[in-house]
Design brief:
With about 600 residues, the protein is of the alpha/beta class. The chain is built from 16 helices and ten strands. α5 packs antiparallel against α7. The structure holds adenosine-5'-diphosphate.
Length: about 600
């Protein structure tokens, strides 16, 4: 959150959230603001109007029944107000807040689903996105508090000012003179506080990262093996703390000076002194003010200034909060560039795939794929091989249209893949990623990757897909078979699968879908070589009429492919069958010789 907003931008963010809240929870918002107004009006009547009335009746020796009536009405109003507030606090507020949290999060999730994967490569975007989503609930909380406070305090100021103007207009002059000075001081203090917070923020984020390293289980095992990394994190944590301290020190003196000037000198000595001098002079010397009027005037001025001070103080929070809202809105306004040109639906049957002179880079200055050209006939099994970083996974991402090529094109069924509806196209390809994820859901849901319909056929197909992927249900402690929850994060009965088993679940996902084009990026890297070999034999059988693109750095798994493409530094440097490539005695053959030694024992 490095950016500070102008006041115009701050107001725009507040207006945006106001509209958002009224759109999604209008009843709640009306009640929320009603309570705010009611509170200030009742404070005014109880502590200013009623006090003035009662004291005036007493001073003038009026009828005591008037006082009793006044007290009775006041008590009645307080009783009603207590009930409406209890309803608000226990029913309306918790529900309304949840409705708004849900509505904003849903908008964010929907957007997160559709924005380009490339956004996640942009460090600034990613940081802001994470920060903004983490702040969503707090953003709404702060907004609701501010909205309530603004309305309430404005009503409070209006009531007291009008009443003071009616009783003792001259007293208002003091407020008119001192208040602008107080506001000026407060504005400077706010500005400095926001600047300090902005300067601290990157260090606080870095410190939070170092903190996470210590408490997240993801790092626990490695930190035991590499204790020096722990030392590095600890040192970085301390350094970030020192930087935060330095920022606090830099702004501390200025903030202290503004605080003393505003709270002490202006608010207490100048304003209070002037008010008491004026009121006592009016009462004792000029004799134009009664005791009741003195008390009421003092109360009006005190409440009026206090309310204004609270509003001003909350501007600081508003400025900060607006910066978060700004980020959330920036995110919500992002448009995906991966869109369909012609909205074509992908044909159901398999087709040929052609990669034509494809160039691509994650950033402009670093090409990752250069002039990649090859084609795959329906039903063909091809393999992409090469050392790490040669661009294999990147090519898969382009084939899945997670990114678009910078140059050249990819055609499926003879048409540029940009012409198909994005989800129709992606849905037609079965893929297993290297970094697949298992979800905190049942085993069945992890294969379906969808909401289940609960039919027997569905369960049968899931079991079959798992069986075909060599995931044997009996061999695992799956107490509820395919209904067993995966991961133990939320379920006591849950199961944590080993890397190899998890990979089979990922493969089963693809087998369940029965797509005609299957892309497998290192699908069996977590299996031992023998298990991998057997699985590949099976996969070849299951997918015998499908087009398969297989990526592996273990060449033993790709030797049966119809054509093998060897990649190096983003280019295809060799292609042909396993035997042809060995005969050529080039880079593939060299890689094969190294690996043959490594895995010889396994076969
Ligand atoms: P392979 O699958 O052959 O190991 P990759 O396609 O994963 O290779 O990576 C090719 C190159 O692209 C590498 O230099 C890698 O660092 C870079 N790369 C991969 N993903 C990204 C990304 N999201 N942003 C920037 N560079 C990336």
């Amino acid at each position: 959150m490095k950016k500070m907003l102008t006041w115009r931008q701050v107001i725009a963010q507040q207006w945006y959230l106001t509209k958002f809240c009224f759109k999604h929870a209008p009843g709640f918002m009306v009640y929320h603001l009603f309570e705010a107004v009611k509170l200030q009006v009742s404070i005014f009547f109880e502590f200013t109007f009623a006090v003035n009335y009662v004291l005036t009746v007493a001073e003038e020796g009026g009828d005591f029944r008037k006082i009793l009536w006044c007290m009775g009405i006041l008590m009645g109003a307080i009783a009603v107000s207590t009930v409406t507030f209890a309803i608000y606090k226990h029913y309306v507020f918790p529900r309304g807040k949840q409705t708004l949290y849900q509505a904003l999060r849903m908008e964010i999730y929907e957007k997160a689903k559709e924005i380009d994967l490339s956004c996640y490569d942009d460090k600034d975007f990613y940081e802001n996105f994470i920060l903004a989503t983490e702040e969503t609930d707090r953003c709404l909380d702060r907004f609701l508090v501010f909205e309530n406070s603004m309305i309430a305090r404005s009503v409070g100021v209006t009531c007291t000012t009008i009443y003071c103007a009616y009783i003792n207009p001259i007293a208002l002059l003091i407020m008119a003179v001192v208040l602008p000075l107080e506001l000026l001081c407060a504005a400077q203090e706010n500005k400095k506080t926001v600047e300090a917070r902005m300067e601290r923020l990157p260090h606080e984020q870095q410190r939070e990262y170092e903190n996470r390293v210590f408490y997240l289980s993801d790092y626990a095992a490695e930190l035991r093996l590499y204790p020096r990394m722990k030392e590095k994190c600890r040192r970085d944590y301390t350094q970030e703390n020192q930087k935060i301290e330095a920022v606090n020190k830099k702004y501390g003196k200025q903030l202290f000076a503004y605080g003393v000037l505003r709270e002490g000198l202006l608010a207490r000595i100048v304003k209070e002194g002037a008010v008491w001098t004026l009121l006592l002079y009016q009462m004792l010397v000029l004799r134009v003010l009664s005791g009741a009027q003195l008390v009421t005037s003092r109360s009006c001025i005190w409440r009026g200034s206090n309310n204004i001070k609270i509003v001003i103080d909350s501007f600081r929070t508003v400025a900060e909060n607006s910066a978060y809202i700004y980020r959330i809105r920036e995110f919500l306004q992002m448009e995906s560039t991966i869109v369909s040109e012609d909205n074509l639906i992908l044909p159901k049957e398999g087709g040929s795939l052609a990669i034509e002179h494809v160039d691509f880079g994650y950033s402009q200055d670093k090409p990752v794929l250069k002039d990649v050209t090859f084609s795959v006939d329906p039903g063909q099994k091809i393999a992409l091989v090469g050392y790490n970083g040669s661009g294999k996974t990147t090519l898969v991402k382009l084939l899945l249209r997670l990114y678009d090529p910078d140059g050249g094109r990819i055609c499926y069924h003879g048409k540029d893949i940009k012409k198909y509806q994005v989800m129709s196209y992606r849905g037609g390809i079965g893929s297993v990623f290297q970094d697949f994820k298992l979800y905190a859901a049942t085993l069945k849901e992890n294969v379906l990757m969808d909401v289940e319909n609960g039919s027997r056929e569905e369960s049968y197909q899931v079991e079959k897909a798992l069986y075909d992927a060599h995931f044997t249900l009996e061999n695992n402690q799956l107490s509820y078979q395919i209904e067993t929850p995966l991961t133990t994060e939320f379920e006591k009965d849950g199961v944590n699968l080993s890397g190899g088993e998890a990979q089979k679940v990922a493969i089963a996902r693809t087998l369940y879908r029965k797509q005609n084009l299957i892309i497998m990026d290192e699908p069996s890297s977590a299996l031992d070589p023998l298990a991998e070999y057997r699985l590949n034999q099976e996969l070849n059988e299951i997918a015998k009429d499908k087009t398969v693109i297989f990526i592996s750095h273990r060449l033993s798994t790709v030797r049966d492919a119809d054509c093998i493409y060897m990649m190096e530094k983003g280019r295809i440097v060799e292609s042909g069958s396993h035997e042809e490539l060995l005969t050529r005695d080039g880079k593939y053959a060299a890689m094969w010789k190294i690996q043959a030694g490594l895995y010889a024992d396994a076969f």
